Task: structure prediction
Amino acid sequence: MDKITLKAKLIKAHQETLQRLKDEYASYQSDGDLNLEDVRDADDNSHREQTEEFLQAMERQIHQRENEIKQLRDLDFSSKDAVTKGAVALVNGDYYIIGIPACQFDLDGKHFVAMSPEAPFYRKLMDRKENDSFVFNDKMYTVESIF
Result:
């Protein structure tokens, strides 16, 4: 598995999502901008408050994506012998990427599940080696490969 290409694709996908959020933020900010001088009644004030809340929520999402991109760039994606941060583990036919925010996607016909090291499933998977098995939520899992 080419983990360098995988990491580059993950970063690119996160950057594209970040750019969409920034574009949406800028568009909503300019379209929904309600000058305080234009506030004439309770409906205008309510609209202004809703706009501010929405923009603040978007700012949090943008900040979160920026942090995720930094985490991805800093993550050591070198080859691993055990399941640790930066490993990609093939477990029961799915590829688990350890150390990045949770998401799922398909790439080149393979299903990937990204998870943070704080995820309960990772705690069971942590430090496992190839052919190790473990039980999580009453289901048996086997580590087929580690990249």
Summary: The first strand starts at residue 88 and ends at 91. The chain has a mean pLDDT of 88.
